[in-house]
Write a structure and sequence with these properties.
5-stranded mixed β-sheet; alpha/beta; 192 residues
Amino acid sequence: MQNPVAVAEKIILGVDPGTQVAGYGIIAVQAGVMRMMQYGVVQLSKYSTYQLKLQKLHDTILRLIDEYKPDEMAIEDPFFGKNVQAMLKLGRAQGVVMAAALSRNIPIVEYAPRRVKQSVTGNGNASKDQVSHMVGHLLKADLNPAFFDATDALAIAVCHHFHENAIPLVSSKKSKKGAWSAFVNENPNRTL
């Protein structure tokens, strides 16, 4: 009698880059079952220069990569806003996070904020509280709602897992695209 082959565990690092606070979340997936390994925030507002903030963010991501050895990184795309200076700063933060992953040969996938929310809650306009609540439910974890940047990072990692495994977001039937009822019908295990 042969022993069944063990399914390898995959570790995904999700990052919500920021210029004042950056969130990170690490999940492990084995045989389709997700579990949270770690989540937290990097407080950058206490550093006096932008260069110090970027260095702290880069160093923290490298430390997490070296400690948890993720197989992949999922990061939030910067959203387009009217403040060009804020977009530039956010892009730099995203760049140092990506550079840290690239220095360790970790593949990176980017997701738009709306896609992350829709993947996790079924609603692309969900609030941070709704995202946090659903991520806690999906990971069977008691998450601190004060760490929205960290729960957003976990949501990014969960979104990546769902997209990697092609979980449909909308019904193939003729229903309103993104409709909550279509999401509930297609994903009974992802609702409360």
